């Protein structure tokens, strides 16, 4: 007879820590004209919210840290204050 | 250049602070390790950012364990898996407090016994999880909540302590150099026995830096030589590319200090001591690299 | 129940002697326990061990305060320890000695020169004559257990045949 | 019956461990337990036990490595004593909370200062709230049998809690008694840990556990602790059926018609039987209850209307003897004369115990060896 003990066992599930996009004060806005798709923004995003192919930023989860903006060699990502 | 897999092993999104260096490092550690991996995590920032029961964000098993206990837990796990004939990677991901302070006894024991696992210390130079109290890894001059006027003694040289165990593989890394992390983890996991990687992971709230500066500050650490990237495979000691470049003409460490709020109480005298420490360390590392090359 | 207290010095094998005594009694179909009293003493300090032999399982763990027999492996312990303490009236004493000894008349005294036997049999380890196997021969003679069981207890513990021949020599030497 | 072999309590535990075939044994030496792990290290070196012996650098790491190994679904054993057990304390809670069926040999020894290596139950009793099952044994045979049963009980899916086998330091760990080294056969079924770690079905263990559920996990431990009473009785019955030696959670000796019952654990509880024999010869109707399973605590002790002389080889400072206190709490009508005896190896004979009974003063506490005027 197999009985699973009740304890803190967790399974993988997106959003397990909530929708971290709500933490944001500043939102990254990409100037797609200037962007040369180097991918450095995606590489350095701690949260991996930038799609490595399309370089679309997932604003549901982006915490707005601004590393992408700071590291962009083209300086084509601006951090814009969120309006609520 | 190594092709780093696009697949992310962490689901969106761990509840680390915005701009977390340790999370950036973990992304690349898990990419290198792949699915056949178990993470062992002692009390640290990474023990609380995994999501809330009954869910988590990691797509590999995670075993959370007590603060002092990571290396011992990984020892038991690795021995059991190997006894069963399983090759699964066992990777400890621990902070500097859990490594250099409370966990050092278990770490030393595991390294001495030659246990087959990879221990990674992400070093944010204080007890970040509990709000930045000083640790043995906090550098000279840094303000923490328990060193309100700046730490008056040096950072513990964890790497030389670990080195004294004569591991098959040991390296340093920094979250600002993800490809370097990826390669070092790959290399480490290809070698049986105990492996150790020490990753400098800037912490925006703890270091009093804006969240967008995490990568930049890490690079400044390497460029000033206060943090040197190297690896040691058996007896072969190599300075990694970013530090090789930096060591030719290190940036003044003062710029690194000035960029962080935690060093705001460092006076000129202390700054000079820090610079002297850096110079001395760089000399030692250059010498070790040269000696290692000679014996090649 | 028959209770035996063994006096020896650390390193002389008193503990192993106690175990072999109990083991021999068990081979005879009895119940027995052997219980060393451990202290922080090191090699050379006087130590005591206890053996209890009974027809029923032994349920007593405390020390033996009123022994039926005392075994003195090293007579020099008598300088510092009152070995006769609590010995029952009519109780027995076995002592390893080559000299004349005198004990109060109410006790039955037996002796053999175990040290001499060990030296003759070349039963010496690290410079010390081994006493714990010859004493098994002596005690078999006193009827604590059968001669066969004593030999078995020795051979299970020590492979070297010098041990059993020393025990046989002691068996012969004791006068009952 | 197999041939009887002479063995110390320590070696009997090691022999039972060899029969149970754990795959991992992390261990650290401490007097008077060391002989257990030395024997196991010998078995492993000789290839008689196919296990990984991990010579850890501390007891904290011994229990932690046991946890790390156990969660992979393998059978794990370790052993300790006294300060070693206390050094494990944090991880004892962890092992139980992580629901890992680790089995541990525990040799009861007192605590410093000053240095003292002799028997006392304070080490294990101060771990009573960790969620470990605790059994106290009184003979070499029982040490062997209880160790075999411990694996089966711990690993039963209705329990999944660790088990500690307690034996008195030196008095039992180092005594030599004849015992039967029974081959357990299939008495211990293969371990099937329902929550074992699996890279093909990744799960997180022990992350943030919110306040609105955490208590449920603790209740599940208690539920299984309660259920373990049934599992223990079933296991002991099955053991008796297969091997002919029967045990109960509380061993009774002439209790039915007794006016006064000595209650104790470990070797004191066994030697108390000799005290009862002595008292009965004097016309005092005495009996003995030897508590074997202290956790889960026995709830069906037949003590109504009898004088109880409870001997505690332990003490809870500012409260009283631990066993006396627990009996009083669970049986509010119990009439107890509490005796504190045997601390730090203090010599207590069956004659002393008989005297505790003769001179008992109900509802008082008596420290053996302390002059009456100081008590």
UniProtKB/TrEMBL annotation, chain A:
InterPro entries hit by this protein: 4Fe4S_Fe-S-bd, 4Fe4S_Fe_S_CS, PorD_KorD
Recorded superkingdom: Archaea
Record carries keyword Transport: yes
GO molecular function, one term: metal ion binding
Domain 4Fe-4S ferredoxin-type: 26-55, 56-82
SUPFAM superfamilies, A to Z: 4Fe-4S ferredoxins
Keyword Protein biosynthesis: no
Keyword annotations from UniProtKB, A to Z: 4Fe-4S, Electron transport, Iron, Iron-sulfur, Metal-binding, Repeat, Transport
Cofactor: [4Fe-4S] cluster
Transmembrane segments: none
Pfam families registered for this protein in UniProt: Fer4_6
Gene3D superfamilies: 3.30.70.20
NCBIfam families attached to this UniProt entry: PorD_KorD
Subunit structure: Heterotetramer of one alpha, one beta, one delta and one gamma chain.
Protein name from the UniProt record: Ferredoxin
Source species: Methanocorpusculum parvum
Automatic annotation (TrEMBL), chain B:
Domain Thiamine pyrophosphate enzyme TPP-binding: 65-199
Top-rank taxon, per record: Archaea
Entry keyword set: Oxidoreductase
Enzyme Commission (EC) number: 1.2.7.7
Top-tier EC class: oxidoreductase
GO molecular function, one term: thiamine pyrophosphate binding
Subunit structure: Heterotetramer of one alpha, one beta, one delta and one gamma chain.
Protein known as: 2-ketoisovalerate ferredoxin oxidoreductase
Species annotation: Methanocorpusculum parvum
Classification of source organism: Archaea, Methanobacteriati, Methanobacteriota, Stenosarchaea group, Methanomicrobia
TrEMBL record, chain C:
Enzyme class: oxidoreductase
InterPro entries (alphabetical): Oxidoreductase_gamma_subunit, PorC_KorC, Pyrv/ketoisovalerate_OxRed_cat, Pyrv_flavodox_OxRed_cen
Keyword Translocase tagged: no
Top-rank taxon, per record: Archaea
Stored Pfam families: POR
Coiled-coil spans in chain: none
Keywords from the named record: Oxidoreductase, Pyruvate
Alphabetical list of PANTHER family matching this protein: PYRUVATE SYNTHASE SUBUNIT PORC (PTHR43366:SF1)
GO molecular function: pyruvate synthase activity
Name this polypeptide is given: pyruvate synthase
EC assignment: 1.2.7.1
The species this protein was found in: Methanocorpusculum parvum
Pyruvate/ketoisovalerate oxidoreductase catalytic domain ranges (all copies): 10-172
Catalyzed reaction equations: 2 oxidized [2Fe-2S]-[ferredoxin] + pyruvate + CoA = 2 reduced [2Fe-2S]-[ferredoxin] + acetyl-CoA + CO2 + H(+)
From TrEMBL, chain D:
An annotated GO BP: organic acid metabolic process
GO molecular function per UniProt: oxidoreductase activity
Domain Pyruvate:ferredoxin oxidoreductase core: 258-353
Residues in Pyruvate flavodoxin/ferredoxin oxidoreductase pyrimidine binding domain copies: 16-235
UniProt keyword annotations, A-Z: Oxidoreductase, Pyruvate
Pfam families: PFOR_II, POR_N
Family matches, as Gene3D superfamilies: 3.40.50.920, 3.40.50.970
Subunit-structure text: Heterotetramer of one alpha, one beta, one delta and one gamma chain.
Name of the protein in question: Pyruvate ferredoxin oxidoreductase
Gene symbol of the encoding locus: porA
């Amino acid at each position: 007879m197999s009985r699973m003990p009740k304890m803190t066992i967790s399974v993988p599930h997106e959003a397990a820590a909530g929708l971290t996009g709500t933490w944001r004060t500043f939102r990254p806005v990409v100037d797609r004209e200037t962007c040369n798709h180097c991918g450095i923004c995606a590489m350095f995003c701690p949260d991996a919210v930038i799609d490595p192919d399309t370089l679309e930023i997932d604003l549901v989860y982006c915490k707005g840290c601004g590393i992408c903006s700071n590291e962009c060699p083209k300086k084509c990502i601006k951090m814009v204050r969120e309006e609520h | 250049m190594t092709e780093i897999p696009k697949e992310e092993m962490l689901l969106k999104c761990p509840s680390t602070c915005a701009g977390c260096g340790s999370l950036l490092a973990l992304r690349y550690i898990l990419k290198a390790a792949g699915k056949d991996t178990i993470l062992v995590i002692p009390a640290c920032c990474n023990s609380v950012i995994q999501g809330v029961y009954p869910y988590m964000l990691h797509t590999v098993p995670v075993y959370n364990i007590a603060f002092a206990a990571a290396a011992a837990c990984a020892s038991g796990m690795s021995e059991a898996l190997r006894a069963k004939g399983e090759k699964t990677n066992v990777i400890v991901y621990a902070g500097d407090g859990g490594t250099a302070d409370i966990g050092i006894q278990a770490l030393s024991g595991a390294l001495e016994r030659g246990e087959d696992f990879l221990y990674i210390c992400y070093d944010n130079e204080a007890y970040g999880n509990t709000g930045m109290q000083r640790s043995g890894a906090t550098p000279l001059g840094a303000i923490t909540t328990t060193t309100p006027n700046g730490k008056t003694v040096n950072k513990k040289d964890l790497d030389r302590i670990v080195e004294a165990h004569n591991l098959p593989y040991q390296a340093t890394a920094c979250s600002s150099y993800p490809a370097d992390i990826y390669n070092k983890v790959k290399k480490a996991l290809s070698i049986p026995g105990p492996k150790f990687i020490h990753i400098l992971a800037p912490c925006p709230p703890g270091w009093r830096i804006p969240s967008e500066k995490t990568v930049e500050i890490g690079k400044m650490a390497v460029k000033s030589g206060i943090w040197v990237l190297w690896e040691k495979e058996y007896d072969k000691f190599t300075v990694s590319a970013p530090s090789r470049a930096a060591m030719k003409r290190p940036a003044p460490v003062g710029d690194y200090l000035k960029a962080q709020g935690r060093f705001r109480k460092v006076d000129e005298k202390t700054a000079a001591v820090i610079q002297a420490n850096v110079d001395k360390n760089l000399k030692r590392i250059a010498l070790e690299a040269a000696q290692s090359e000679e014996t090649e | 129940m028959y209770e035996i207290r063994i006096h020896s010095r650390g390193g002389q094998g008193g503990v192993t002697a106690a175990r072999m005594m109990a083991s021999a009694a068990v081979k005879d179909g009895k119940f027995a326990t052997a219980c060393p009293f451990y202290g922080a003493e090191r090699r050379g300090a006087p130590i005591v061990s206890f053996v209890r032999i009974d027809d029923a399982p032994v349920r007593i763990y405390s020390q033996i305060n009123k022994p039926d027999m005392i075994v003195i492996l090293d007579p020099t312990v008598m300088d510092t320890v009152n070995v006769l303490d609590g010995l029952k009236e009519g109780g027995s004493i076995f002592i390893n000695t080559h000299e004349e000894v005198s004990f109060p008349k109410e006790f039955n005294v037996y002796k053999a020169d175990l040290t001499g036997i060990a030296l003759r049999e070349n039963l010496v380890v690290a410079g010390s004559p081994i006493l714990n196997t010859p004493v098994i021969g002596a005690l078999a003679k006193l009827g604590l257990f059968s001669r066969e069981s004593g030999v078995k207890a020795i051979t299970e513990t020590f492979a070297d045949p010098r041990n059993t021949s020393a025990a046989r020599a002691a068996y012969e030497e004791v006068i009952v | 019956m197999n041939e009887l072999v002479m063995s110390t309590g320590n070696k009997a535990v090691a022999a039972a461990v060899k029969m149970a075939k754990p795959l991992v044994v992390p261990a650290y030496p401490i007097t008077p337990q060391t002989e257990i792990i030395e024997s196991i290290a010998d078995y492993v070196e000789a290839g008689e036990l196919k296990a990984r012996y991990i010579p850890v650098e501390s007891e904290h790491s011994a229990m932690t490595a046991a946890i790390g190994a156990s969660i992979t679904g393998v059978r794990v054993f370790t052993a300790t004593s006294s300060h070693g057990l206390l050094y494990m304390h944090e991880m004892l809670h962890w092992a139980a909370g992580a629901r890992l069926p680790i089995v541990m040999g525990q040799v009861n020894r007192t605590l410093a200062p000053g240095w003292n290596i002799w028997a006392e139950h304070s080490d294990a009793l101060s771990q009573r709230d960790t969620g470990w099952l605790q059994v106290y044994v009184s003979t070499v045979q029982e040490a062997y049998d209880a160790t075999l049963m411990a694996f089966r009980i711990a690993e039963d899916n209705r329990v999944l809690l660790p088990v500690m086998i307690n034996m008195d330091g030196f008095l039992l760990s180092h005594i030599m008694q004849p015992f039967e080294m029974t081959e357990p056969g299939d008495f211990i079924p293969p371990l099937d840990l329902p929550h074992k770690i699996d890279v093909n079905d990744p799960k997180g263990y022990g992350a943030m556990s919110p306040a609105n559920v955490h208590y449920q996990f603790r209740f599940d431990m208690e539920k299984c602790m309660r259920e373990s009473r049934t599992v223990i009785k079933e296991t002991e019955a099955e053991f008796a059926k297969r091997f002919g030696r029967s045990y109960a959670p509380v061993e009774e000796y002439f209790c039915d018609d007794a006016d006064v019952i000595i209650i104790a654990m470990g070797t004191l509880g066994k030697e108390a039987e000799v005290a009862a024999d002595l008292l009965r010869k004097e016309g005092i109707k005495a009996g003995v209850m030897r508590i074997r399973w202290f956790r889960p605590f026995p709830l069906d002790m037949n003590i109504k209307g009898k004088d109880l002389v409870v001997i505690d080889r332990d003490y809870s400072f500012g409260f009283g003897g631990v066993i006396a206190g627990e009996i009083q709490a669970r049986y509010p009508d119990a009439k107890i004369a509490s005796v504190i005896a045997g601390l730090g190896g203090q010599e207590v004979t069956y004659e002393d115990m008989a005297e505790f009974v003769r001179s008992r003063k109900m509802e008082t506490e008596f420290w053996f060896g302390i002059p009456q005027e100081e008590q």
